[in-house]
Amino acid sequence: MLAAPANTQLREFFRTLLGYLTRLTSRRVLWSALLAGALGAVALVLAACAGTGQNVTNITNPNPVSWFPPVPVTEQGDQVTGIYPLIFAVAVAVFVLVEGLLVIIALRFRRRSSDPDLPAQMHGNNLLEVTWTLIPALIVAFLFWQTVDRLAKIQHLSDSPPAVVVEVTGFQWQWTFDYPNQGALSFTGSGTTGPEMVVPASEPIRIRLHSRDVIHSFYVPLFNYKLDVIPGRTNEFEITIDEPGTYGGQCAEFCGLSHADMFFTVRAVARAEFDQWVTEQQAAASQTPAPLPSGGQTLTLNAVSVTAFDPATLTAKAGQPIVFDFHNLDTTNPHNVAIENATPEGAWVGTPIANPGQTASYSTPPLQAGTYTYFCAVHPTTMRGTLTVQP
Amino acid sequence: MATTTLAPRTAVYGRSRVYEWLTTTDHKKIGVLYITTAFGFFILGGIMALLIRTQLAVPGLDFVDAATYNQLFTMHGTTMIFFFVMPMTTGLANYIVPLQIGAADMAFPRINALSYWMVPLSGLLLYSGYAFGGAANAGWTGYAPLSGVSGGRLFEGVGIDLWIAGLVLVGTSSILGAINFIATIFKMRAPGLTLMRMPLFVWNTLVTSVLLLFAVPVLTAGFVMLFIDRHYGGGFFDPALGGNPVLWQHVFWFFGHPEVYILILPAFGIVTEILPVFSRKPLFGYKAFVFATASIGALGFSVWAHHMFTTGAVFLPFFSFFTFLIAVPTGIKFFNWLGTMWGGQLRFSTPLLFALGFISLFLIGGLDGAFLAVVPFDFHVQDTYWVVSHLHYVLVAGSVFGIFAALYYWFPKITGRMLHEGLGKVHWLGMFVGTNLAFFPQHLLGLDGMPRRIVHYADNPGWGPLNFLSTVGAFTIAASILPFLWNVVISLRKAPDAGDDPWDGNTLEWATTSPPPAYNFDSLPPVRSERPLFDLKHGAVAAHAVAIPAAAGETHEETRADAPEEMLGEPIEGHEAGQIAAEAQPGVSEAAPDATPHDARPKADDEPTPRRRKSDK
C-alpha cells in the first residue's frame, strides 16, 4: 500500500491536532473554548433560521450611524449640537486619562521577583486628593451652566401661540393629529405607517400632546427631541423646522403590546405649499362622503362598554368592502372598530373615533376569506370579536 | 495566626444535612444559600437576555412575538435586579461582614434566615405569572397607567399582580436584611475596630443598608397604591379619578435611584477590598473613600427625577445639578483606586483582573451618566438604547464584574479551595470582550434614535450590523460563564488547598480557617488600624508611615511593644499595654520589621502564597 486510506489519515490528523492543542492549553480550557464556539454557532443558527415576521419598514433616521446625534433639522435641536461635542471631548479626555493611567499601572507596577517584600506604604496625599476633587467639580459646574442656558432656549414658548398648532393625541397604538386653526382638520393613522403631520418650515409651530390611555412619547430623532404624552396632562413644545423634508418619528415610552409599531411622520414644507395643502384637505373633508360602494355589505355593530361589542361575532363576504353602521352606545367612552391583519401593512382602523352616543360609518377595504379579529382601537385588548369572511 | 479548631467539648448532635441547611441561622450558610440562589436567577435572567438579543439580532425577525418579548424584557430586568444582584451582594455581605468585623454571627440570626427564605418564595410568586396567562410585561419600572388603570380600563393582567406581590415580599426581605446589617455593624464590632478602621466592604454594606431602609418602603408603598388602583377602585395614578400617572414615576424613582446605588456600592466595596491586597499597599485615602461612599448614599436621594426629564413635569435644573454633583465623589473613588495601585506590586490573579475590568469599564457607564445630566442631550436619548447601554455598563461591567471579583476572591475562604487561575482568566477575557461587544454598539444605536423596549426595528442604516454585534457580545458573555461553572465544579471536588490566607490579605476574615468554624474565631488579632491582619504579619511599625519617636539609644526598628500607649489606641480589657504585641507576635524580635513569622514571601507570578498551616503561629 502506498498511502494509508483517507479515513486513517484523517484520524491521524485530528489526533495530532488535538495533541498539539492540548499541549498548548489544558483539556479543560479546550472544552470551554469548544462550548463557547458552539454557543456562538447556536446564536448564528438561531438568527438565521428564525422566520421573518411582520417587518416594520419605517426609517426614522436615514443617516449613517455616527458617534454624534443626527444633525437636527430644528432651531431648538442646534442646542444639542452645540453642547454635545463639548461633553464628548470631556468624556474622551477623562477616558484617555483614566485608562491610560490603568495601562501604565498594569505595566509599570507588576510584582517582580526582585521586588522587596513590601512597597512603600502610602496612605494618601492631601494635595492630590483635593486636586482631583476640585477639578471634576469645576468641570461639572461648567457643564451644568451650559445645560441650564441651553435648556431655556429649547423650552421657550412664544407669548401667544403660533399660527400652526397641532394637537397630537396618542393612544394604543396609533396617533391622531388635529389642526384646530386650519378648519378642524383631523388625521388618524392606520397600520404601522401612522399619520403624517404636514407643517410649514421656517416658522414656529406648536405641538400639544394628549393621551387617551397610557403614557406614550412623541420622539423624532432628527429633532433631537422627545416629550412624553401623558394622560391627564397636556405637554407642549415649540419648534422651528429649518429644513423642509420628511422626518420619521415613533413612540418612545413603552405603552404595551404594539409599542414597537407606533410610528408617524412629520413633513415640513414651504409656507405656500402648506397653505395649498390645507386648502386641499379642507375641500376633501367637506365633500359629501362617497356613495357606499355598490355591492357593498353593511354590518351593524354596537359598542356597548369597554369590554363588549354587540354582536361579538360577525360574518361577511370576501372581495367586497364592509361598511360598518357603527353605534357607540357607551355613555362615557369613545370607541370605534378596527380589524387585525386586514391589509398586508397591518390593521385597518375605522376613523374618526365615535364619541359616546355618536354613530359612524366605517368602510373597510375588501377582505380575503378567512377569520379576522375585530377590535376597538381605543380598547384593543378588552373589546374584541370574531369576523368570519366567507368566500 | 490561624485559629486552631479546638476539639469540641460536646458531640455535635446528629442532623441530616438537608435539615441543617433548611433550618440554619448561621450567617455563613445563609450567605451560601443567598449566593447560590442568586446565581440560579442569574442563569434564568441571562437566558432571557439571550432570547431578547436573538430576537433583535437582525431587523424584522419573528423569533418571539411581541407579547412574549414584552414579558421577556420585564422579567429579565426584574430578575437581574431583585433576584440576582441584590441577593448576591446580600449573600456575600452576609458571609463576609461578620468575619471582617470579628463577630460570631449577625445581630439577628433568625431574621437573617427569614430574609433569605423570602427570596426563593418571592421568586416563585413572580415567575408563577407564566402559569397564569402571562408574566409581568410592563417593564421592570412598571409605569402607570399601563401597569394600572386609566379611564376605568385595566390594561394588563394578573402577571402584574404577581409581580407586585413578589416584589413586595422580596422588598421586605431587603428591609429586614438592612436592619440586621446596620445593627450588626454598629453593635458587634471587635474591640479596637472603630468605625474608621472598618474595611470598606463593611462601610459600603452599611451605606447600602441605610439606602435600602429608606428606599424600599417607598417602593412598597407605591406597589400598594398600584394594587389599590388595579383592584379597589383607587385613583392614585388614574387621571379619570383625579390621579396623576407622573406620581407613580416619582414614587418609583425615589426608590429607583437609591436602588442603583444599592446595586453598585457593594461592588465598589469589593473592588476597594481587592486592590490593596493585590497591590500590597494600603488604601489610598481611606477617609476619602468613606466620605465619598456616604456622599453618594446621601446624594443618591436627591437625583431621582433625572429619570423623568422628558415628562415635562419636573424642575429640571435641580435634578441636573445634583446629578452632576454626584459625579464628584464617584470620581474621587476612581482616582483613589488608581492611587492605591500606583507604586504597588500588582499580582494579576483573577480577582484583580475583575477589579481592573470593573474600573476600566464602569468608567464608561459613569461617563454616560454625566452625558445624561445634560438635559438637552437627555431629551434626545432618553428611552433609547443609549440608556440601555449606560445601565448595562454600570450593572454588568460594574456590579457583575464586582460580584465575580468577590466570588474569585472569597471562594477560597468559603470552600477552603482555590479556583483554577487559567479557567478564571478565560472567563474574565470572555466577559471583558463580551461586555464591550454587547453594550458599546448600543451607544451608537441610541444616538441614532433606536428606542428601547421594542420587539423589532426598521432597517435604518447601520442598525442591523450594530444589533448583530451586540447579540454576539451577549452570547460571548454567556459562553464565558461556562468556564466559571466548570471551575467551581472541579475546584469543589479537590482536597482543601487554600489555607487561611491564600492572598496575603489585610482584614480579619483571613485570620481564621477556610472555611471558618461555626463560631468564626477562636481569638482575634489586635485591631489597631484598618489592616489588622497586615499589622500582625508585617508589624505595625512597617505598616505606617507615622514615625514612632525613638527612645534614647534605640533605632527606629522597634516593635509595637515599645510604642507609646497613645499610638496603640484603646487597650484590650485585661491586657496591659505592651503585652498585646508580645502575645500576638511571639516571633518578632527587635530586629528589622521584616523578620515576619510567615513562611515565605509571596511569589512574583500569579500563584497564591504558600498556605499557612494550622501548626504555624
What is the compact description of this entry?
The complex is a heterodimer of chains A (391) and B (617). Chain A has 391 residues and is an alpha+beta fold.
Polypeptide structure, described:
The complex is a heterodimer of chains A (391) and B (617). Chain A is an alpha+beta fold and 391 residues long. Chain A folds into three domains: 70-102 and 129-156, no CATH class; 165-286, Sandwich (Immunoglobulin-like); 297-390, Immunoglobulin-like (Sandwich). Helix content of chain A is 30%, strand content 29%. Chain A contains five helices and 19 strands. A five-stranded mixed β-sheet of chain A has the order 3-2-1-5-8. In chain A, a hairpin with a 5-residue loop joins strand 2 and strand 3 (185-188). The model of chain A has no long low-confidence stretch (mean pLDDT 87). Chain B has 617 residues and is mostly helical. Chain B has two domains: 32-493, Cytochrome c oxidase-like, subunit I domain (Cytochrome C Oxidase, Chain A), CATH 1.20.210.10; 499-617, no CATH class. Chain B has 19 helices and two strands. In chain B, a hairpin with a 2-residue loop joins strand 1 and strand 2 (153-154). In chain B, helix 3 packs parallel to helix 13 (385-415). Chain B starts with 16 loop residues before the first helix and ends in a 33-residue tail after the last helix.
CATH topology of the largest domain in chain A: Immunoglobulin-like
CATH class of the largest domain in chain B: Mainly Alpha
Mean pLDDT of chain B: 89
Oligomer: heterodimer
What is the ordering of alpha helices and beta strands of chain B?
HHHHEEHHHHHHHHHHHHHHH
In CATH, the architecture of the largest domain in chain A is Sandwich
Mean pLDDT of chain A: 87
What's the count of strands of chain A? 19
- Reading off the top of the CATH hierarchy, the class of the largest domain in chain A is best stated as Mainly Beta
> Mind telling me the CATH superfamily name of the largest domain in chain B?
Cytochrome c oxidase-like, subunit I domain
Q: Greatest contact pair?
A: A-B, 118 and 134 residues
**What proportion of the residues of chain A form beta strands (DSSP E)?**
25-35%
Mind summarizing the main beta sheet of chain B? 2 strands, antiparallel
Runs of chain A in which pLDDT lies below 50 for 5 or more consecutive residues are: none
Class by alpha and beta content of chain B: mainly alpha
